[in-house]
Design brief:
24% of the residues lie in helices and 15% in strands. By secondary structure, the chain is an alpha/beta fold. It has a 16-stranded parallel sheet with strand order 7-8-9-10-11-12-14-16-18-20-22-23-25-27-29-31. Strands 13-15-17-19-21 form a 5-stranded parallel sheet, with no helix packed on it.
């Protein structure tokens, strides 16, 4: 420390140090003329000359970067509230040092310094050109706390220890009155208090060193300063942003606020707190994001106390998830501690959905009903992968009064305790204790075995029953008033029979049921059907889906024949998209006739020889069909005759005529809707016939090519003669 002071006096130190202690600023560009004595900032009387402490020689070893108020050890100045502040570094006072002996040696050729009480003073250090080796150096001052124990709580350390230093956390905790909630609010905001608009010192003026200290951004080791009225952590007006010429353009300012919030949604709570330290704009954005955050997933790196504090810090939460911190939940008391903290916070009355996925050690049959006591108005509950939950726990949940308000329940992966009996009670609606249950997930419940029939009075509109390896027969036969619209039964490896008869069903997904051989469908309102990779399915026993419109996916159905697929398309007059990739059993000629079909994909059907499409297609993909020899694109079939004619002939002009008018009106509406979609989509014809090495004929594309509306890819079609190729727009 003595050598540093000597180097500073001779100009050997740079103007501003950027090392580990970058907040110490050494310089020699100030001359404090008339200050010959350094006794705590008072007016001195030294009369040194060239090398002295006063006069023109000035204070060549002045330490800048330290707050001028902190540099007054005898209370000559203070902060705005009048509280005396000690120096960050104090002179070490050795026991054998007297004012006269040591001061004479250190005075040098300048005036002899004197300090009150005869001790060593700052003047003794700065008096001469050389400093005696026995002169005391600098020693860090001991850290003073309000109560004697300046350590912050462990939950704050775990949440912010990776982003802020321990000293900063201790200071903020002390300035917030040792209140965990106030400190959490301040640290989450992560705005640094500035002193740009207040005066310092006893005379109301600040030195230039103090001005530079308050206007710059603090380092991680500094603590925010407190105002007289309490903790002040908002950014000061004296902190100016660096110009674009030094830092580059600030693209963050160009983003709209909505996009900023979307970016922060991709971060966790802890990562957002770290991001807030970058600048004031990010701090303000994080504060606004936290005030409007609705879905919170607690991080896995915090303790129970930290998780409880974080769950209570978001005022607008509507859903809370503990799935990432599930390993820390060793008992039901741990889960209830976090949930009760969230319920007692500002968002307690808004939280409507909780996710306890994977909290296996904390949720059992006896503990499940107690979860409904924490929040009032809970509408969603996820107990996925809580393997200790059985049918008894489901019955206990149903008996709880709060179960009447539940709309969504997930017991996915609760195996092997959940069986078909528990599923029947869940789907029994009001009689089973679940009058409002509309979404149910039983995926992965391997205890559901054998044949299962859904009860006709079920209230569920969306049922997920994926990966039920022991399920063999599923019967869904519901009345017209049943609200079921989405049914997912994918990866049921032992499922052999699927019978679905429900008018309101919109989406049916039975993919990867490799042993499915019997399929019966009576779904007038079905919009999307997915039966891909059902390798044992040769043909549906019954297929009554006149409303099938959006998509039919049969990819990987290796046993499906060409005649079966043609019949399914013809029975779906509104179908717009067909995907039949990898159907190895499609052989001979595949004839697709529809007035609504827009997109056809039959990629990799190696045994297919002729593809004839009589539909207004806009996209045809048949690449990799090595046995394909001809592709025909024909005009769609004529519309069917109006049904009201036959009704009039048979039943006169009574009810039959009225029914015909209704049907005609509905058909007209459908046609108008189709025309509107044609206007929205482009009218280009896109063909992908790459690697169809046996292709020799391509019919029905010449007109589109001449009009410049054809985009065709024919690379690898080595057998196609030049006379059969389109004239233009070949890729």
């Amino acid at each position: 420390a003595v050598s540093l002071v000597t180097k500073a006096r001779h100009g050997a130190m740079p103007h501003k140090s950027k090392g580990k202690q970058g907040w110490l600023d050494w310089s020699s560009d100030e001359e404090d003329s008339g200050r010959g004595d350094g006794s705590g900032g008072g007016s001195g009387s030294g009369s040194g000359k060239k090398g002295g402490h006063g006069g023109k020689g000035g204070n060549k070893g002045h330490v800048r970067g330290l707050d001028s108020m902190l540099a007054r050890p005898h209370g000559g100045g203070g902060d705005q509230g009048g509280r005396p502040r000690g120096p960050a570094f104090a002179l070490r006072a050795d026991g054998d040092v007297s004012g006269s002996g040591r001061s004479d040696r250190s005075g040098g050729r300048g005036g002899r310094g004197s300090s009150p009480g005869g001790g060593t003073s700052a003047t003794g250090l700065g008096g001469g050109r050389s400093v005696d080796a026995r002169h005391p150096g600098f020693a860090p001052r001991p850290r003073a706390t309000a109560t004697g124990s300046g350590s912050c709580p462990p939950e704050l350390l775990e949440m912010f220890g990776g982003a802020l230093s321990r000293d900063t956390l201790d200071d903020v905790f002390e300035q917030c009155g040792r209140s965990v909630d106030a400190a959490l609010e301040a640290l989450l905001a992560l705005s640094v208090g500035g002193d740009g608009d207040r005066g310092g010192g006893s005379g109301g003026e600040r030195s230039s060193a103090d001005q530079r200290t308050s206007s710059r951004s603090p380092t991680a080791g500094e603590a925010p300063r407190a105002s007289p009225s309490g903790p002040r952590l908002a950014p000061g007006r004296g902190a100016d942003r660096a110009p674009d010429s030094e830092t580059g353009p600030n693209l963050w300012d160009a983003l709209p606020p909505e996009l900023r919030l979307l970016i922060l949604d991709k971060l966790g709570a802890r990562e957002a707190a770290r991001a807030a330290r970058v600048c004031k704009d990010l701090a303000e954005t994080v504060r606004g994001w936290r005030a409007t955050k609705r879905d919170l997933v607690l991080p896995p790196t915090l303790s129970l106390a930290g998780l409880a504090s974080l769950a209570a810090a978001y005022p607008a939460l509507t859903s809370l998830s503990l799935r990432k911190c599930a390993p820390k939940m060793a008992s039901s008391e741990d889960v209830l501690r976090v949930l009760r903290a969230a319920a007692q916070g500002p968002a307690g009355g808004r939280i409507a959905w909780i996710d306890l996925e994977g909290c296996d050690a904390a949720v059992s049959d006896a503990d499940a009903p107690g979860l409904l006591d924490v929040f009032h108005g809970l509408t969603g509950l996820s107990l996925a992968r809580c393997t200790r939950l059985t049918d008894k726990g489901v019955a206990a949940l149903a008996a709880h009064p709060a179960a009447a308000a539940l709309e969504s329940l997930s017991i996915a992966g609760c195996t092997p305790g959940i069986t078909a009996a528990g599923l029947a009670s869940l789907l029994s609606g009001r009689s089973g204790g679940w009058p409002k249950l509309s979404r149910l997930d039983i995926s992965g419940c391997t205890g559901i075995k054998g044949s299962v029939a859904l009860p006709p009075l079920m209230t569920v509109s969306s049922l997920r029953a994926m990966y039920l390896p022991a399920l063999t027969v599923l019967t869904v036969q519901l009345p017209p008033a049943a609200p079921l619209e989405h049914l997912l039964v994918t990866e049921c490896r032992s499922l052999r029979t699927l019978h679905v008869s429900t008018p309101r069903l919109k989406v049916l997904n039975a993919a990867l049921c490799k042993h499915l051989t019997r399929l019966e469908l009576h779904c007038k309102g079905l919009d999307t059907l997915v039966i891909q990779h059902c390798s044992s399915l040769t043909a549906p026993v019954t297929f009554v889906c006149p409303g099938l419109r959006t998509e039919l996916i049969v990819n990987g159905c290796t046993s499906l024949t060409s005649s079966t697929l043609s019949g399914m398309v013809s029975k779906s007059p509104k179908l717009r998209r067909l995907r039949a990739d990898g159907c190895a059993s499609l052989d001979g000629e595949l004839h697709l006739s529809s007035r609504a079909l827009r997109e056809v994909t039959v990629e990799g059907c190696a045994r297919l020889q002729v593809l004839r499409v009589a539909a207004p297609v806009r996209s045809l993909d048949a690449k990799g069909c090595k046995g394909l020899t001809a592709v025909w694109l024909e005009d769609p079939p004529p519309p069917p005759p109006p049904p009201e004619a036959s009704a009039d002939d048979e039943g006169g002009s009574g009810g039959g005529g009225g029914g015909g008018l209704v049907e005609e009106k509905k058909r007209g509406d459908d046609d108008d809707e189709g025309e509107e979609e044609d206007v929205v989509t482009d009218d280009l014809l896109r063909l992908d016939l790459r690697n169809c090495s046996s292709l020799v004929r391509l019919v029905g594309v010449r007109v589109a090519a001449l009009e410049g509306k054809l985009r065709v890819r024919l690379s690898g079609c080595t057998s196609l003669p030049a006379s059969a190729r389109p004239p233009t727009n070949i890729m």
